[in-house]
Design goal:
single chain; 159 residues; alpha+beta; Ubiquitin-like (UB roll); DNA polymerase, domain 1; 2 domains; binds FE2/S2 (inorganic) cluster
C-alpha cells in the first residue's frame, strides 16, 4: 500500500512520519513516534484508554486514521507533565488512589486535564458527565472523582 508522509506535532515536537492510509493514530503514536503512554483497551472507541487531545479536543486515537491528523497538534499523557514535574492531575491520581491496574489511567488523565481546562471548578456531576467516555473496570470511579476534585483544588491554589 502506498505510504504517505504526514507531519504531526506531538507534545510540542514536530514529527514527520510515513504512514499507510489505514494506520490508526494510536499505532503511529505508540510504534512510530514511540510514546507508549497512550493505551489500547477496546480498539473500538468504547473505553477511552486511547484518549489524546487533537488540536485541544479529546479524541479516541483508536478510531482516528493517522493520515487525518496530518498537520495537527496532539497532546498525549506524556505531554501533560510540566518541566519534568508531574501535573497536578497526575499527582492527584497517585495520591488519591485513582488507579489500580493502570490501563485506563492515561486516558483518564488526558480527559481530566482537558476537563479542568474547560471547567476549572467542576461539580461532581460535571466530572462524572465529562469523564463518562472513559471506562475503568477496577476502581469503581469514586477515587477517580476524588482525584479530579483534588486536582481542581490544587490548580485553583496554584493559579
Ligand atoms: S482503545 Fe480507543 S476507545 Fe478503547
Ligand atoms: S485502573 Fe484498571 S481499568 Fe481502571
Amino acid at each position: 500500500m502506498t505510504k504517505r508522509l504526514i507531519r504531526l506535532t506531538v507534545n510540542g515536537k514536530p514529527y514527520d512520519v510515513e504512514v499507510e492510509p489505514r494506520e490508526r493514530l494510536l499505532d503511529v503514536l505508540r510504534y512510530k513516534v514511540g510514546l507508549t503512554g497512550t493505551k489500547e483497551g477496546c480498539g473500538t472507541g468504547d473505553c477511552g484508554a486511547c484518549t489524546v487531545l487533537l488540536n485541544d479536543k479529546r479524541i479516541t486515537s483508536c478510531l482516528m486514521l493517522a493520515i487525518s491528523a496530518h498537520d495537527c497538534e496532539i497532546t498525549t499523557v506524556e505531554g501533560i507533565a510540566q518541566d519534568g514535574h508531574l501535573h497536578p492531575v497526575q499527582k492527584a491520581f497517585m495520591e488519591h488512589g485513582g488507579l489500580q491496574c493502570g490501563i485506563c489511567t492515561p486516558g483518564f488523565i488526558v480527559s481530566a486535564y482537558a476537563l479542568l481546562k474547560e471547567i476549572p471548578h467542576p461539580t461532581e456531576e460535571e466530572i462524572r458527565f465529562n469523564l463518562a467516555g472513559n471506562l475503568c473496570r477496577c476502581t469503581g470511579y469514586v477515587k477517580i472523582v476524588e482525584a479530579v476534585k483534588a486536582a481542581a483544588q490544587e490548580l485553583q491554589g496554584s493559579g
